[in-house]
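Take our chain:
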Amino acid sequence: MRELENKALKERFTDKSGTFQGVLEGFDTCGICVDINNFYGIEINSFATAVAKTALHIADKQMRKATNELIHANLEYLPLRDFENILCANALDTSWDKHCPKADFIIGNPPFIGHQYRSKEQSAEMDLIFKDFENYGKLDYVTAWFKKSLDYMKFSPNTRTAFVATNSICQGESVATLWKPLFENGVNIDFAYTSFKWDNSVDFGTGKKEKADKKMAAVYVIIAGFSLNNSSEKYIFTGNSRIPASNINGYLVDAPNIFIQNRGKPLNSNLSKMSKGSQPTDGGNLLLSQDEKDEILAKYPNADKFIKQFMGAEEFINGKLRYCLWLVNANPGELSKIPPIMERIQKVREFRLSSKKADTRKDANTPTLFQEIRQPNSKYIIIPNVSSENRFYVPIGFLSPEIIVSAATQIIPNATLADFAILTSSVHMEWMRIVAGRLETRYRYTPAVYNNFPFASLDEKDKETLTATAQGILDARAEFGDCSLADLYNPLTMPANLRKAHEKNDQAVLKIYGIDKTATPSDIAKELFTRYEKEVKTREF
């Protein structure tokens, strides 16, 4: 802040020739507005509190020296003055308005702790902070600072707040849980930095940066600046770009304040329902590796009818082979003559009986079957639940009903090539990147992404066009039949003909949606949110 003040002084007192106009009488006592006592803070760790105080003194000394050189005056900074503005306390059970009655800005980097990792004490703190919200569900611990800031800004309405936070608060179901009540209480997002990788590297004096916490995994974060004042100038920062926005919603997109809710079926009633694959709940006993399959078949060739290829996200993306015992309508007499299969069935029964869940114990009565069976009887689309954020396109494909698909994937029975074309397009990928949740940094595709996506209405010509572009993608993949989808969709190794096929498909889908081919991701998102809002208003469920 002092540095900004110095810049302001230089600009104010520099003439047209660029010459600074010198000293102001009494400037050292009345001209400087930014002082160390303007800063307040709350830090739970005593050592960090001491470090913060020391850092402020050092910064104050450096900036006073710079000011002295600028105005040719002597702003004393010795002796150092102790001050109580940096408080060693828990920010969530401290009264901010009593500690700092009227702040202009609140800024910080509160702790990120996922709901599953919260301690009992932290959960109790959130219960208290969010007591007047309907719920806070699975929100990250960091969101308590957002709510605490809202409470403070109600007391001090001109205060503006900005926090670094885990990007999960702007993804998936967290958006409606957090931002809907914040917006209803008058909050507006003034600026936002979209998701970027958090670098916790520090130079410890060696000239090289090292991780401050070597145990800390890579974290992707956002920065949200918000207030109770609806700023006329709003900006979204992505990478090195600063993009003006008319409104910034909870997904950090320039679009209306829309919230994607869980929905049991697609917005478009003509589409097939999406569901996850089948769940064995078997302790691994119904699943087989290649070696285990070969071992059984070497002794019992007639067991071949009971073994099917089994595919989850890992197998689908990386081309790995795995198998399962698929014993739907299996002849008990035939099974009893294959000891290794009978042993596995017995172990499934024992595993389920040991479960704490009543339904699982009940299903010990049918140990030959997967606990949850959702296997399609016809060709179907498969989408992995989790896939790398490094790929521009999430790998999507078609599978035969002979391949048993696991609950680590989403499936769409009876889907068409036109459906595939839209789902694998840049338009749907942009929707997925905004609406989907994350597992660490990877995309997590759920039915909510598909069910809420505003599919365009297609005429016969559109269907014909998309059928052709979809087939073009599948044909391009087929030229590299020995490669996994991970290889084909690696940004560094993606074949030129596959990329070209996708680009042709993207252009066709953009045209159908009435989006210009030069549109930015922000333009695409804005169009999709507008379409979603219209569809929700016009359809009854």
About this structure: The first helix runs from residue 2 to 12. Confidence is low (pLDDT under 50) at residues 25-30. The CA atoms of residues 514 and 527 lie 9 Å apart.
